[in-house]
Amino acid sequence: MCLILIAWQAHPDYPLVVAANRDEFFARPSAAAAFWPEAPQVLAGRDLEAGGTWLGISREQRFAALTNYREGRQAASNARSRGALVADFLSGAASPSAYLAQVAARATDYNGFNLFVADGQHLAYYANRGDNPPRFLSPGIYGLSNHLLDTPWPKLATGKASFAEALAKLPAQAKFFDLLADQEIVADSHLPETGVALAWERILSAVFVRSEDYGTRASTLLVRHRHGLTTLVERSFVAGALLSGEVCESFVSPR
Known about the structure:
The protein is an alpha+beta fold and 255 residues long. It has helices at residues 83-91, 96-105, 154-167, 174-180, 198-204, and strands at residues 3-8, 16-25, 30-36, 39-47, 55-58, 63-68, 113-118, 123-127, 135-136, 140-144, 214-224, 229-238, 242-252.
């Protein structure tokens, strides 16, 4: 996933709102968001190659989401699955702080990642790149792409601004999906340098990534109301930015 925008306790009626795009090669098999048969409390998509997931929520209000850290070098082939970091938190019972402490202790087992985990009370963040330990996040709006939290890449800056505007329009959802569908390419003078070729920096600079073999596979909106109703809407895409399906699931959790 290459973009996650989170409003954490920043709206009086919606303590958690997430808008996210998952970017991946079209050849990598995946399943759309659904409740998992072996863990029926978990609602998430699934990477059918490694078995993990990139974003999900549980009926117990456990939330997790992950992005890869773009390093411009070949990923280690023997590294642990990063998607398992999300799946294990969603299906487990550890607190966010205890879980991230466990993850940090084996951080070198993974290729570069950023990880959000939350329960109904706390949102925490950890990256195994940079020198920062796991930390709790205070109420506010946060953005994450394929660098560290709130790194001011152009698509993150514009995405956060559009996300704040969409937040004010809740319960309407259209503006969230409008921002997730933005295919504007950033001017070369504003592109980050992450070790990939300039042509790829251009492609990856859009909120909605589009190329022949790689691009945005899913756009997800997750909204939790203070009365306990959680709704997840996910739109799936295939090559050519063609919509291939939409999932809408809701459930009520204890407050």
